[in-house]
Amino acid sequence: MRQIDWNDFTKVELRVGRIVAAEAFPEARKPAYKLQVDFGPEIGLRKSSAQITVHYALEDLVGKLVVAVINFPPKQIGPIRSECLVTGFHDANGDVSLCVPEHEVPLGTRLL
């Protein structure tokens, strides 16, 4: 495993956001959803694509807190421009389970 130092870690802006909209993304190569995530007044809304269709139904995502990287450059994914990377872990089958705070925290809070 390659080690990094604290300065490397602090470059990554991992922030808490709330999913405010979720819709199907039929144009995606792999099954995915289009998400809009609110990171609070300082950061605002960001769009993302997430391959989380196995463990999450669209109607269950709105209102869910998530942890996302907000300082990657935007990435074009088919017809949408992804503005953040919603984080998660692969389960034993390779399906993604979201990384979420256990308790309510203010939107935009940074993980450190």
Walkthrough of the structure:
By secondary structure, this protein is mainly beta. It has helices at 6-10, 58-61, and strands spanning 14-24, 33-38, 45-50, 65-69, 75-77, 80-82, 85-86, 88-90, 96-98. The chain has one domain: Nucleic acid-binding proteins (OB fold (Dihydrolipoamide Acetyltransferase, E2P)), CATH 2.40.50.140. The mean pLDDT is 96. The strands form three sheets. A five-stranded antiparallel sheet has the order 3-2-1-4-7. A two-stranded antiparallel ribbon has the order 5-6. A two-stranded antiparallel ribbon has the order 8-9.
Contiguous helical run count: 2
Instruction: Tell me the quaternary state.
Output: single chain
Q: What is the level-2 CATH architecture name? A: Beta Barrel
Strand content: 35-45%
CATH superfamily: Nucleic acid-binding proteins
The number of strands is 9
DSSP helix fraction:
under 10%
Q: How would a textbook summarize the main sheet?
A: 5 strands, antiparallel
| Rounded radius of gyration (Å) | 14 Å
Task: Give the secondary structure arrangement, pairings included.
Layout: H1 6-10, E1 14-24, E2 33-38, E3 45-50, H2 58-61, E4 65-69, E5 75-77, E6 80-82, E7 85-86, E8 88-90, E9 96-98
Antiparallel strand pairs: 1-2, 1-4, 2-3, 4-7, 5-6, 8-9
Describe the structure using short key phrases.
112 residues; mainly beta; OB fold (Dihydrolipoamide Acetyltransferase, E2P); two-stranded antiparallel sheet; 2 helices; 9 strands; globular
